[in-house]
């Protein structure tokens, strides 16, 4: 199996990094704490699962819209980055961020499946999306992403036909997504080299695998190919645990809530170090007899990062994550 270019690029960046480095002693100490943690599991209660075609359309749209939930709309805000966009969950609990989106779209799939029709998505406006999701941040970007999904569904005459082209291969599905959906092409120039991250393309593979329990449309035999899904929350928890050592000037900028431009050296290094840290955590755990793939370690850490942490996440306005 050919190597994942995200993995290759992340290691290349970290060897040249000026603002972020790994503390491998802290990494080993935290990995030892992770050993007895329970198995990361797919959180089905916030996701839709129905007949395959509608389920695949739901997942495609979910991860097309899965980016930047911290509050733009006139931001600043920090410390605490209070009140993200959210919805009421199945037991009345308040859901924010990704789980809010997955559950809100689940309700749409259950109550109005026609919303996922290719023709409707292909002409979706920001106002149309707002009517369904409320005041979710960055509505124009999200509506544009939904239109890309609609056009793809029209081009391939449905989601099942499109996903079938991957032939059960995670790398092939990532290639298809990044080839046909411009907003899934996530990467940056660093030191004159293109460094891909493909956060949402990779997470869609994991979401399909999780939703279908590794069967049917989710029967990917090469899930080890996936890397971590470099976002806001993983660098935050890795920094909080001392695994990421951040240059004091950059740390102060993050604490102040200053925007880091997408594609800046600092932002690329944070994401690359995250990918490498998760790789090394997965390797350490495997050497101790705990078989978790990098994407499963990502799930473990991402869920742990939803609690209050002593440091803020970095802030980058982007549709990439």
Tell me what the structure shows.
This protein has helices spanning 5-16, 24-34, 52-64, 97-111, 118-122, 126-133, 139-156, 159-164, 170-180, 199-211, 233-240, 248-256, 265-287, 294-304, and strands at residues 20-22, 86-88, 94-96, 187-190, 193-196, 244-246. With 321 residues, the chain is mainly α. The protein has one domain (5-304). The chain has a two-stranded antiparallel sheet. Strand 2 and strand 3 form a beta hairpin. Helix 9 (170-180) crosses helix 10.
- What letter string, H or E per element, gives the SSE order? HEHHEEHHHHHHEEHHEHHH
- The beta-strand count equals 6
What does the average pLDDT come to?
95
- What is the helix content? 40-55%
The class by helix and strand makeup works out as mainly alpha
Main-sheet strand order equals: 1-6
Detail the poorly predicted runs. none
Strand content: 5-15%
Shape: globular
Count of discrete structural domains: 1
Give the biggest sheet. 2 strands, antiparallel
Number of helices: 14
Radius of gyration: 19 Å
Euclidean distance between termini CA atoms: 27 Å
Keywords, separated by commas or semicolons:
321 residues; mainly alpha; two-stranded antiparallel ribbon; 6 strands; 51% helix; globular
